[in-house]
Model the fold of this input.
Amino acid sequence: MDIRALGYIGVDVADAAAWRDYAEMLGTMVLPSGDDNGFEIKIDDRPFRIVVQHADGAEGLAFAGWELRDAAALDDAAAELEAAGFAARPSTEEERASRKVRGMVKTTDPGGFALELFWGPIHDHQLFVSPTGVSGFVTGDMGLGHIVLGTTNLRESFDFYTKVVGFRVSDYMNLGVDDMVFTRCNPRHHSLALVGAPESVLYHFMLETHTLDDVGYTLHRHESQGLPLSMGLGKHTNDKMVSFYSLSPSGFDVEYGCGGIRVDEATWAVSEITSPSLWGHRHIPAS
Ligand SMILES: [Fe+2]
Done:
């Protein structure tokens, strides 16, 4: 199937109020929402990119919304899911209205993560204005950013995403026991990275700003407000992102960076990296 981008994600959180403050501190726009159980985050010209929803159970990824070109592409994708033995559950009108999309089909990946394949985001043409003066987030044809998932079923998940969903491998990182694999569906080096884990888990999602100053000011806000980091500033070996890892109120990280490369499909070849970072990304123990 022909996925164009990571269109949106949803996260389950225990403390939605803490997340409102957190999202604003990151420079994203918190949108007023109809109920007290969550809210949406806007980072660009789309009505939203992240749904934050209150959950009493486990915190983490509630769903990942993968964008297709059009209605025909979604029909093809649903047929390919079913041919490969995966569910392609139709969406309700209410679900499409809540995600602000014209078409959506739901499935579950081998690690148990809920996926929403969709086409036709419905624009509201509202301007993105960062509450902290972030100059903007890199989205467009690269989608909202990336997610890194730990999965109980790495081999099956790898096969699902590369053979059924159609993601291309950008590179591998050998962890000694098993590979971590970085996959793409557009010029962003990876929209999805997978690593084997004892339980399926969202390790982090990544937001990419336009400038290093955006990253620096946001890092400075963490430090001046005493907010926790998981890793300090560093530069990744593969996508060349200069980033730091913020510890969200839900215990998973938000990678916050700039300067990621664009993959050229005509010349890219798969390689193996042996370290995640060129410099920095020092682990910061929880205090
Ligand atoms: Fe990342």
